[in-house]
Here is the input.
Amino acid sequence: MLSTLQHNVCDKVREEGGDGDHTIWATSLCSDEVTNSFHYFTQQMAGPGPFILGGITGLPFAGVTGMKAFLSHVPTGGKAMIVYGPHIGVTQEGELGKVRRKNRDGHSTCCGSITAAVDSIRVHASGVQDDPLDYQQSRVIEHLNAHREDILAADRPVKVATDRAFEAIEQKLERILDKALPDFPGIQVFLVGGIEINTDWDQEDYFDLRTYRWIES
Here is the structure.
């Protein structure tokens, strides 16, 4: 559960000599409001938080400039943490890719960006659909189209697409950090990566933890 994860993460930060007043955090999560469930971190860490690195699906669209801005805000002698990954809904009946939102009749897609990208690569074999008014979704489609056969052959394409999205998010974050961190010697960054699993609006969400490690410039 998300509450358990958040308590464990804060304990891990403290074990490494960090404390809430000297640790800031960022996310590279989807823009969807259902991903805004990490309230405990806001209470425990410096600043109102979080710094937003991600866009739809969770890809770190803030890039190197955004990462450098985030790292420049780390309290003196402090640390940073980044929570990242895509998300996927699951209904009480076990259907993936959908969730029931508060005061809305029926279910809606979750993640809507990934679901739309799967639909797009099913129809457009090339995957190329650059639209300057929909830049982020164009990039999501580009990443997932690289795994088109794998995704479309799966019994649950949205699940496989979510896994591939996590890999894309992590790889991009690592490349961005490789460029940004050298400008901030001595700063430690705690990476918490995984897939957020959203349930109905009145239930607690979960987090499929996949990365849990420190890196340093």
Q: What stands out?
A: Helices lie at 2-15, 39-44, 63-71, 112-123, 135-145, 148-152, 157-180.
